[in-house]
């Protein structure tokens, strides 16, 4: 560790020196020497990168490298989704999930159906589902003589294969949007070593009705390496999850979130499993249907939008971003469809940023896409506008802090001095946010690499952050030449 810290300190000092040396020659339309050198070292062409560095409150950038070139932003698209939502819905917005007890409750028996209507709540997670069912129990229901009816009509989204994007069907980030999205349609397997018994115990949450899993695997000695691979999990049978491997005691307790292999039946199995675990009985089935037009028996309210935006941006939660995206279509256009949501986002961007938004191509709200396109100029204008917006604390505070939390927890660039959204796909690497410089000034920094080897651009992105943070000697060069003097002096 002392060696790593010393190496990092040396690297930071070298970058700062390079920044100072190159500052006297820096112009807005030329890459700083440390950034160019890092791209060269990664064997990446300079035109694979777009970048802008601009002081907050200034109209002139310090750097504008291919600022109008449309590029795939990956998860930087979440900045448009979350900022537009904060402005259009307000930080205190909440989703509501109404519940109806249809029929009389007599001697603990509901003589009818339990109806639950989704409105797109992005965080209807295990704890809140449990509380919802607990509320049903508190209303005196121990047995449901009818069905549990789920109204998912608020969103109209085409069925999709979760493996379509990258072949990773069991990755939670590939779960599709749903008006009644329960616990992200995921199961969390917790693996706990039990040295006395020589096994690692495996627990699953939530309990899914009709689904079994191996309760333990042998406990192994040796270092903790690829513990997921060592478990040799087999999820191919949705009703029987097997673990044929072992688990290293050195790994301690670990949690593994996995998207359920049969997503269409997740809600049914989760609700039935939780209801049974609470001692409840269900005589009928869990099925799709429509909610009545009468007032509900009670409602479950989500955390505020400000809280959920923090989850979306800090941890780059694709599923929550998609829920929010479709909510924009539902609330602003009356249709929870991708088409309506795209129209809302395009209209908001055009009204907010004018011609800068002309190159914007919206596919979805998360950035998990090959078709989305954004310019560095648009993202820069968005961040400058956000800084001057009433919702600035909510948006900027939702961004990961370099070296502190979220997707930047392990970053060593500008430790603790940058609030940055990250974006990453196999051919995209990007950052966008605000950096606190040595002078006390703040700079908006946007940089995106599009290239088959884009992840090799990470050192260049770090160099750009350091260049912005080390601003003491950076000159401000106008984009256009100064106007001629009215009384020119003869040469």
Keywords:
491 residues; alpha/beta; Beta-lactamase; D-tyrosyl-trna(Tyr) Deacylase, Chain: A; 2 domains; five-stranded antiparallel sheet; five-stranded mixed sheet; 12 helices; 22 strands; 22% strand
Radius of gyration: 26 Å
Level-2 CATH architecture of the largest domain: 3-Layer(aba) Sandwich
What's the count of strands?
22
Structural class: alpha/beta
CATH class of the largest domain: Alpha Beta
The helix fraction, in percent, is 25-40%
Strand order of the largest sheet: 2-1-22-21-20
Distance between the termini: 61 Å
Describe the structure concisely for a colleague:
With 491 residues, the chain is α/β, with parallel strands linked by helices. The chain is built from twelve helices and 22 strands. The protein has two domains: 2-91 and 306-469, DD-peptidase/beta-lactamase superfamily (Beta-lactamase, 3-Layer(aba) Sandwich); 95-302, D-Ala-D-Ala carboxypeptidase C, peptidase S13 (D-tyrosyl-trna(Tyr) Deacylase, Chain: A).
């Amino acid at each position: 560790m002392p060696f790593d810290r010393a190496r990092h300190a040396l690297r930071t000092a070298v970058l700062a020196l390079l920044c100072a040396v190159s500052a006297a020659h820096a112009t807005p339309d030329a890459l700083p020497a440390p950034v160019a050198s890092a791209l060269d070292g990664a064997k990446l062409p300079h035109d694979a990168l777009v970048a802008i560095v601009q002081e907050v409150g200034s109209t002139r950038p310090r750097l504008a490298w291919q600022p109008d070139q449309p590029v795939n932003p990956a998860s930087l698209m979440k900045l448009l989704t979350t900022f537009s939502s904060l402005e259009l819905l307000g930080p205190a917005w909440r989703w509501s999930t109404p519940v109806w007890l249809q029929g009389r409750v007599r001697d603990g028996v509901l003589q009818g159906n339990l109806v639950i209507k989704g409105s797109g709540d992005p965080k209807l997670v295990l704890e809140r589902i449990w509380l919802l069912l607990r509320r049903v129990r508190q209303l005196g229901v121990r047995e449901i003589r009818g069905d549990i009816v789920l109204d998912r009509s608020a969103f109209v989204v085409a069925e999709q294969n979760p493996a379509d994007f990258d072949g990773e069907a069991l990755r939670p980030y590939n779960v599709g949007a749903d008006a009644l999205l329960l616990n992200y349609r995921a199961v969390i397997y917790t693996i706990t070593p039990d040295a006395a018994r020589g096994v690692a115990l495996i627990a699953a949450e939530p309990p899914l009705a009709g689904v079994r899993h191996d309760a333990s695997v042998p406990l192994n000695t040796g270092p903790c390496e690829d513990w997921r691979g060592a478990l040799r999990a087999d999820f191919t049978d949705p009703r029987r999850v097997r673990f044929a491997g072992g688990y290293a005691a050195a790994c301690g307790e670990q949690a593994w979130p996995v998207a359920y292999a049969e997503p269409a039946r997740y809600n049914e199995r989760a609700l039935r499993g939780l209801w049974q675990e609470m001692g409840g009985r269900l005589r009928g089935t869990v099925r799709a249907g429509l909610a009545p037009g009468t007032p509900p028996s009670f409602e479950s309210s989500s955390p505020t939008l400000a809280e959920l935006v923090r989850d979306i941006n800090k941890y780059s939660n694709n599923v929550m971003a998609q829920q929010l995206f479709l909510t924009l279509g539902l609330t602003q256009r009356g249709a929870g469809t991708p088409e309506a949501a795209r129209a809302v986002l395009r209209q908001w961007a055009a009204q907010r940023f004018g011609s800068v938004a002309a190159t914007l191509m919206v596919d979805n709200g998360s950035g998990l896409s090959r078709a989305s396109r954004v310019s560095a100029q648009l993202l820069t204008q968005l961040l400058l506008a956000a800084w001057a917006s009433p919702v600035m604390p909510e948006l900027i505070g939702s961004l990961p802090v370099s070296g502190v939390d979220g997707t930047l927890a392990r970053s060593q660039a500008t430790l603790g001095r940058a609030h940055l959204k990250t974006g990453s796909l196999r051919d995209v690497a990007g950052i966008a946010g605000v950096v606190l410089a040595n002078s006390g000034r703040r700079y908006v920094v946007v940089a995106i690499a599009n290239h088959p080897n884009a992840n090799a651009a990470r050192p260049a992105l770090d160099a750009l952050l350091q260049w912005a943070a080390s601003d003491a000697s950076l000159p401000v060069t106008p984009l256009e030449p100064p106007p001629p003097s009215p009384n020119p002096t003869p040469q």
